[in-house]
Amino acid sequence: MKEIVKMLVVLTLISGVCGFLLAGVRSATKDRIEEQVLLNVKGPAVKKVLSEATNDLIKDRKEATVGKETSVVFVGKKESDIWAIAYEVSAKGFGGDIGVMVGFNVADDTLTGIAITTHKETPGVGSRVSEDMFTRGFKGKTITEKFSIRADGGVIDAVTGATISSRGVCEAVRRAIEAYRGVKGQVQ
After folding, report:
1. What residues contact 29, with CB distance under 8 A and at least 6 apart?
2. What pLDDT does 165 receive?
3. Comparing C-alpha atoms, which of 71, 141, 63, 59 is closest to residue 100?
4. Is 47 exposed, middle or buried (0-12, 13-18, 19+ CB in 10 A)?
5. What is the pLDDT of residue 34?
6. Can you give the pLDDT at residue 36?
């Protein structure tokens, strides 16, 4: 019995030390990880969505409340005037959440475009929602249009064989539109 207690105490101590070390490493690398995600995941997506911006989109980002949470909002400027904003929203796809960067022209309330930031969709099928063939269908549309696939009465052509993934992207865009007026007011 003493051997079992002794093993349990040693195992508990080892687990506690390992947990403490892992928490310390996570805390020490948190800022670096966020910076890398910003530069390598969100950065390329926002540059695609706000391609006409003349400012440094990463440097000029702001925080705003998107829905129920605080999010990074990228501000696109032309000659020092704000012309567009973009932020990331997500919705459920076939394989999990799909992260979508959605850009808005603040002057005429149209979409400047969308870009997929993260997904776990089936390679070669659902993952095709990240291709230009699908994403360019959102560019220039007004926020009053019905963002759903044509099979559901909307204006977006679904990716063949990836109906659930296409619906997920449309849902993310609808969520972005729901938050748009509030975000626009916070940024301007």
Report:
1. none
2. 96
3. 71
4. middle
5. 82
6. 82
Are 84 and 106 contacting, i.e. CB atoms less than 8 angstroms apart? yes
* Average pLDDT value for residue range 16-34: 89
Cα–Cα–Cα angle for 187, 103, 81, rounded to 5 degrees: 45
What single-letter amino acid sits at 155? V
Amino acid at 69: E
Give the DSSP H/E element, type plus range, for residue 164.
helix 163-187
- The full DSSP string for 61-94 is -EEEEETTEEEEEEEEEETTEEEEEEEEEEEE-S
DSSP per residue, 96-160: SEEEEEEEEETTTTEEEEEEEEE--PPTTTGGGGGSHHHHTTTTT-BTTS--SBGGGTSSBPPPT
Enumerate the domain spans of the chain.
47-187
Structure tokens at 20: 């403490």
User: How confident is residue 76, by pLDDT bands cut at 50, 70 and 90?
Assistant: very high
